[in-house]
Amino acid sequence: MDLTHSSHTHKESFITKYIFSTDHKMIAKQFMITGFTMGFIGIIMSVLFRLQLGWPGEKFLINELLLGSWANGGVIAPDKYLALVTMHGTIMVFFMLTAGLSGTFSNLLIPLQIGARDMASGFMNMLSYWIFFVSCIVMLVSLGVEGGAASAGWTIYPPLSALPEAIPGSGLGMTLWLISMALFITSSLIGSLNYIVTIINLRTKGMTFSRLPLTIWSFLVTAILGVLSFPVLLSAVLLLVFDRSFGTSFYLSDIFIGGQALERFGGSPILFEHLFWFLGHPEVYIVLLPSLGITSEIVSTMSRKPIFGYKFMVGSILAIGGLSFIVWGHHMFVTGMNPFLGAVFTITTLLIAIPSAIKVFNYLTTLWRGNIIFSPAMLFSIGLISTFITGGLTGLILGDATLDINVHDTYFVVGHFHIVMGLSAVFGTFAGVYHWFPKMFGKMMNNTWGQVHFWITIVTAYGVFFPMHFLGLAGVPRRYYTNSSFPMFDDFINLNEIISIFAILAFLGQLIFLFNFLYSIYKGKKASQNPWNSNTLEWTTPVEHIHGNWPNDIPEVHRWPYDYNKPGYEEFIPQNVPLKKGETDSGAH
Amino acid sequence: MEHQLTYSTSFEENKKAHEPLLWIGLVSIIMFFAGLTSAVIVSSTSATWQLFSLPSSFLNSSIAIVLSSVTYQAGYVFLKKQQQSIAILLFAITLTLSLLFVYFQYAGLSNLYQQGIFATGSQSTTSSSYFYILTVLHIAHLFFGLISLLYVSIKTMLNKYNNNNYLGVKISLTYWHFLGILWVYLYVFLSVMMSK
Amino acid sequence: MLLLSAFAFILILFLVTFIYLKGGEFKEMFKVDPDDLTFNEQENKTQGWLFAAFGIAFFLFIVFLMLKWGGSILPEAASVHGEEYDSLMLITGIIIVTVFIITHVLLFLFVYKYAFNKNRKPAFFTHNLKLEILWTALPSMVLVLLISVGLYNWNSIMKPLGDKDDKVLIELYAKQFDWTARYAGADGKLGRASVHLINGGNFLGIDTTDVVAFDDKIVKNEFHIPVNKPVQFVFRAQDVMHSAFMPHFRAQMNCVPGLKTQFNFTPKYTTQEMRRITKNPDFDYMLLCNKICGTAHFAMKMKIVVESEEDFNTWLASNQSFKQ
């Protein structure tokens, strides 16, 4: 196969190449840059409110510098603290970890790994990115409006989010939040449609479902979750818009605020919670699954050993995806829901532990007797296994209706989901960037700085989130501006300082990544075609990007993607290498 | 490395994915309405849930949209038989029926309005708000169906459909059937949940 | 606030130009070759060592946290159902810690032990049905245990008290940003109330025509409950969602506008007894708001006093009825 082919003569103007590109590789980069920029803003916000939590009431020049009127005199105002928390959550969950992660790697890897020229619809793919871009802009603009940005928590429970009288952020800020979210959902839906159809219809010859890399399986299930759950969030958002702006009462009933009783009857805030969490819980896996897929791929490649239990891995992805639709009630154990329903949701929720345990043990067995190469991607993948275990285990407490009573909405929850979903997803993202950077930019990222970045990140991340479990067990509620009204929490003043210091260090650690990333784009070492000696199809494309991915025919697939150190054969055997005489496909059993 | 390169695909190949693209899109629209209609069920347990009688206009509109599905399907059959003129006629009837549908929906809603059953405001109830919103959202989806119907009709008139490139018509037709089924579902559902 | 995003953009722009212009000078910093697989085996080993060291440090960190702050978590439960809660938490905790230690020891051990060695031939181990069934079955069995104990407790905790049970009936009323308690009074019943009836002094919206309401007693700032007697709470919210959180009693329930929710528990220790148990003479039970409810969410609280039934009756009698 001729892969030395470099100067593809495909005339493209700057605009069609870099701005309104329909090429999935360029769209992946656009998603990455936009998503990471949003993530960067989100993480700065967290540092700012950690300053307030670590040293309540202390004046910080940086607050005034960055937040302006939100922090007159250098101390964040209480309602603006809530705005920061809300926007941090929204930006990280949706913009960084949904669009930034799934948008980047689904776009980059789906056509490349299944052997397709491009997505099913390049135009829709482009549309998906640009709608996402507009939704980012709207969300950022909402930071600057009168009353401040949305401040009702990222879960925007009404009536707090519905009534501007309740909190200033529920005015124009909330309206823009809802507009931005409606756009985001549209973008996400269009993207997901494309991913599913591409995976189902455009696989190259021989790429059967049992030969799909685990990355693709996870992207597929993620996209299916998106298609099924985001429309429901859209319906929830729509009804909230009507309640806010047109005087309906879907979520509102018997409310007295601003000196008068509202003429709203028959609604229920609990309805919103049901609709929201019907999306909200699958959303957790929309964030997490791509990372698990990326990690599966990297752990196998960098251990130079097949992934253990491929079919159980696929099965557990499907099981997690399926279960995620019948567990949403565990966010609502203390809303006064019918105790019988609470019992049902406890059972379904705890069942998720089974596929999760399978994944963990399979990762461990994959590492066992491997030959591990600690590329930065591998380091982050191992970090993910650790955070997935740590955060997953505390889920046994939160998923149990009884135990949830006393840790619900405390720092225990904050610690839990930041570790299991936040850190795991972020680690998966970093792993993916380090691993596929050569594919995206044709350059290598620096190894040493990658290692430094990893060690700073894992140490500081655990330093931030692990102690939060103790705060939670002491009953410290989340979303408190300060704990100083409660002498019973005074023991934790020092601990909060420690957490904040770790948070600042964690942020500084990310600057190393940013630097390494940008430096490597311009000055990185040129990558070879298959730098990690990997088996998947994306490494059979030329280093230089061309429209259509393969200069000649698309390779045909003959085997599963995990033939590393197969006894009696080469060290690694890419998927497009035909089976030798008498050889059986190791994935087919 | 030895490779067997026998399988060649071009970008044209991606077109075969357009139909599944529609199907999965329909799934997400179904989920959207499923979210809203389950919200109706939850809200209907409230003590203040009000029942009202649906104007007969909505039955007329239901008949109109079901008929339009039949005529569109027939038009497609004739188009495939290369009988453009009959197809055009049937498409025109489909268009008329769909406009009739929109008219009946409008008449039904204004009838409700005259009865004092409002969409919003302090005199509205949750049940009436749901009714208006679901009806209007269906019409919003119908709007895209109308555009595709017009597109198909114009292309037929310009004689652009010849040998086997009926994919666009098929997609438009599937969507049209979906709109009909969606409305029939909504009509039955809303009658059960809201009418006296 | 737009400044923040502007700042982020500018920082990134700055870095881009800086690296682009001055990139050469950083070559020195980046001289380690990030080459394909022709890497430094010794350096790779170091990463394995670091993982082992990190594993140990991680465990030490957890031990340190436990020693320093383990004592600051909530004291033993002050309610009857809280005992079951605490023992379930203990069982779950032991399981979690055991699994955590086993998996992490294995993880860091494998990572350390199987760092690249050019003489090692990795195992080609694709699947093993027995092993996989084993670790499907093991967690399943543990879960059956946890679920059955958990559900048994859940059903007994959530069961409301019957009308005839001897109990104290209290309505907790949440609004931005304080709590009000209303006692049922001598008739043991709470009068009708609705936010639509709020006016002036009648800030709970009590129906002034309802005879049952006349002996209701409204208290602010702190409320008292008797020890060893079931207390039935009913919750109402006026404006947005709140959550009544009484961590020492292992009790929490959301307060939802337009909806009445309820929770009940039996206090086990008086405030005085708890002061002895915690060795803290200033200890007080607290009711916190635990659902984001607006600007002063963090300061929305009410003191709870648990005392003997006699003291409680005396205290209650000293409070005025709604209409005398």
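The beta strands of chain C are 168-175, 178-183, 217-220, 222-226, 231-237, 242-246, 251-255, 261-265, 285-289, 301-307.
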